[in-house]
Amino acid sequence: MNLAFYAITAIEIERYLYLLENKSKMHKIFDWNKKQNEYPAKDRIVYENLTKREIEVALSILSNQSYKEISKDLYIAESTVSKHASNIYKKTGVKNRRQFLLGFRKKFKK
């Protein structure tokens, strides 16, 4: 066993704990995703085509974390977080973080 093995194991454990901590938010997103067929495509907030990492970033954005905080939590570069966020915004049909937060909160309250 070497140091790299322990480092990767620690990172994976940290990711798993992050998912456990955000389990209720993930269920809300998945439940919301199931209800999306009731709304026209332009009103959809969460799409099935979000990757696992994009879902993790979306959860962090919904928790009002900065890109820098997200990058530290997920062990990725801040530019990578920005790229994931950009993909999330494109896939959900919004232009920026503010619209994503407002749109999700507005649609989820219905």
TrEMBL record:
InterPro entries: Sig_transdc_resp-reg_C-effctor, Tscrpt_reg_LuxR_C, WH-like_DNA-bd_sf. Keywords: DNA-binding, Transcription, Transcription regulation. PROSITE patterns: HTH_LUXR_2. The keyword Transcription applies. Gene3D superfamilies: Winged helix-like DNA-binding domain superfamily/Winged helix DNA-binding domain. Pfam families: GerE. Residues 43-108 form the HTH luxR-type domain. PANTHER family: DNA-BINDING TRANSCRIPTIONAL ACTIVATOR DEVR_DOSR. This is Helix-turn-helix transcriptional regulator.
